[in-house]
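I had to read the description of the data format several times before I understood it. The format is easy to grasp once an entry is in front of the reader. For illustration, here is how one protein appears when written out as sequence plus structure tokens:
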Amino acid sequence: MAGGKLTPRQKMINLMYLVFIAMLALNMSKEVLSAFGLMNEKFEATNAASKMTNEQMLQVLDQKATEAKGEFAGAAETAHKVEAATKKFYDFVETCKAETLKKVEREKDGKLPYEQMDKGENLDQSWFSGEGYSKRGNEVIAAITTYKSEMAAALSEKKYSPILAQVNKAFDISDVKTSEGLKLKYLSYHFKGFPAIASLAKLSAAQSDIKKAESDVYSAALGKAAVQTASYSNYQAIVVLEKNAYFQGENVKGTVVLGRYDKNTKPTSFQGPGKLENGQAVISLTAGGVGEQKINGQFTFLEDGKNIPLKFEGNYVVVPRPNSATISADKMNVVYRGVVNPMTISFAGVSDSDVSASAPGLVKVGNGKYTMSPGSGTEVKINVSAKLPDGKVVPDTKVFRIKNIPAPQGAIGKMTGIIKGAKSRLEASTITAELLDFDFELKINVVQFSMKVPGQPTVVVNGNKLNAQAKAALARTSRGDQVTFSEIKTKIEGSSIIPKLTSPVIYEIQ
């Protein structure tokens, strides 16, 4: 514009235009730099607020895990893994921000001189080497990769998949295709040649993404655990009658209420006719005189750091003792073949010395105490006779069903079903057989089992531990493989009874 065959006046006018345009560009540049500075301030303020909010949410989750356990305990474990990954990466990004501000002097009021931060030589010299990354640049990429992998490991449950997808999207370090069709490395596209204030704002924005992911995890953990705890699957309809005994023809009154049977809900104290055992109150008292009697007391629960009292009251009726025989199995209403069944046999109002009982396999072992070892058949009849004070003999008979010992369930480390764990844990474990919900204590020994690893031949092992061949097959498994233990053969110690076929147990490699 200022060259060519122009008059001196026209040359001067053109030169003034150039100066004016340059001044406009300079002013616009300063405005943009200030805008980036204001954006950075917003991000940093938001990050500080998010930090406080996330800390409070984690405290609430820890408190719930301490008080209620159950789902909250698992949610808290996940949250702490995310907290560790978040803190490490957030602090690393903070070191990157410090690099950006190297040799930048703040103003008297503590603010950064945004309009002077138009150069990017700090990161350009530190992160890049030619067209590639420097050692520091590779450290930045490694930190991002580590953060993503740690979050993936912590958020393995399906309910966290949307959060994990957002993390992967926010920190996608793939090469970026420009509008001209060129491919640039991730850091080059986002930071190389940028003003320092722009890079600073981008790093603060990255910290904001980190804190948001952390917040989303805590919210999901709290919400999911709360929903699971409050689920109606934990409740049961309970019939509550005004009293526990009625005479023939009497009006029966009561209510049906919803009660929650939850092993994780444990009272901190109990006042009443009994004591706390395994989180529940076990009532134990001597019945009073004939007629209606009352039972009352109070539970105390810890909620949000406060003791919450819960009073209860109920009735029961004491009736006169009957004058017929009382025969009951001490542990169940049937007798089992192959075990010694303890029994109590008595006759109301009659001394034990005047009571006799007989049945195949029945042996008296003490005052009113017997043992029953049933033989063949499906039932056994127990005959009882009592000699009353007047010399009259009163007979009575009770029939008990005979059942076989139920089939054991295969177990690893006393755990049945599908167990998850590391290879090393399985390698050192013992294969056992468990009788679930069976009240008799029996010693069941595993003498042989078959081990099946996906894609490999079945290994038959004698004994109850993995042999060398089984360990070799185990070594070739991968994460997610399910190792099946079947054809489990057992023997009952001290008994000739052969147990039914033991059900399989599965171990999933983690």
